[in-house]
Design a protein that fits this description.
two-stranded antiparallel ribbon, about 220 residues
């Protein structure tokens, strides 16, 4: 077993009033983030995508195994294949797989099996969860990979919003087709599909509200 190595933490302490201001500004920014389904086809610099993924890659992970893979799709034909496969699965979900309660929850969002944004958005980011690795000829699971990748995705969404881009978290179920179309190994499990780009002119979003602080926080 190797010995741990340490280095000094690079940390800048800020005054309490600045803490509060920074927290408030960050909240105000993220409170403007919305899930978008109407995208523009306008191009986005690839470097912006790369920097956002680098930010996501700073997320904490179980045993520092960093069990994520971000596949950036911009090829039109591949996006078309993904849309066709996703809509096939979504049709089955909306017409039999989903419960009446689930469909009732989705009704307020106005969603259905049609997913044109999968072709329109300039980029699709397919996030995979790496469930195991091979080291010294032995298979080892990645620890807390579900939680780790979930944290990284949250940071990715925040990074894209900070860069002035719109996103959508799309989870057609099952998502095995993403593994097949993108030719990923069996150890990489599709986690979420994120279209990224600018919102279309006149894009609209559901008129819904977020829970209040009192509803999501409790002090004990």
């Amino acid at each position: 077993m190797s010995e741990p190595k340490f280095k000094l933490l690079n940390f800048r302490r800020v005054a309490k009033d600045e803490q509060i201001q920074k927290a408030a500004e960050f909240y105000e920014s993220l409170n403007g983030r919305r899930t978008v389904r109407d995208f523009s086809a306008e191009e986005v610099p690839l470097e912006t995508i790369e920097k956002a993924i680098l930010a996501a890659g700073t997320a904490p992970s179980g045993a520092n195994m960093q069990p994520w893979r971000f596949v950036v799709v911009r090829d039109r034909e591949i996006k078309r294949k993904i849309r066709v496969a996703a809509e096939r699965e979504e049709y089955e979900s909306y017409h039999g797989r989903m419960s009446a309660k689930w469909l009732r929850r989705l009704a307020v969002l106005g969603t259905d099996e049609h997913k044109p944004f999968l072709e329109i958005a300039p980029y699709l980011i397919v996030v995979f969860r790496i469930n195991s690795i091979v080291e010294d000829g032995e298979i080892e699971p990645t620890y807390y990979s579900q939680e780790s990748v979930g944290i990284a995705v949250g940071m990715l969404l925040a990074a894209f919003h900070n860069a002035g881009l719109a996103t959508l978290t799309h989870t057609p179920s099952p998502m095995r087709f993403l593994q097949e179309i993108l030719k990923r190994p069996k150890t990489e499990i599709p986690f979420v599909l994120i279209p990224v780009g600018y919102p279309a002119e006149g894009a609209k979003v559901p008129d819904i509200e977020r829970k209040s602080l009192a509803e999501i926080m409790e002090i004990v």
